[in-house]
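User: Before I run my own analysis I want an independent prediction to cross-check against. Here's the chain; please return only the structure tokens and, at the end, one sentence I can use as a sanity check.
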Amino acid sequence: MTSKKKSHPSVQQFKEFVKKHPKLVQEVRKGNKDWQEVFEDWYLLGESDVVWKQYRDGEQEQEDDKKDSKADFMSQMLSAVKKMDMNTVNHHITNMSSTISTIQGLFDQFGSSKGSNQQATNNSQNHPFTFRKD
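Assistant: Structure tokens:
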């Protein structure tokens, strides 16, 4: 009977790391590095160190760059919100609201006068000879 050994959790994590960085396998096969050296560097530096960026697969690198850009955007937005003065924001929102109300009022005013002119034109077209009673 053969029994399987359970690997240490750090070994499992290292295997996952190597899967994400296939160029490391190529380096070891070429003889430029050995697995012990790679494992020690990984253990000491961690997965997120810039040293590993050159060994990533192109697709993985693009996905990580997208995640980084999203995180950067969110951190910029959060810092911008923190820097805002809420009284100033409230003032601008109030001004915008009153401007929109004024524009809506103008549209209503011109829209209703246009409608009444059209009705008068329609009535005169239906009855070309309008007679008034004295």
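Sanity check: The longest helix spans residues 86-126.
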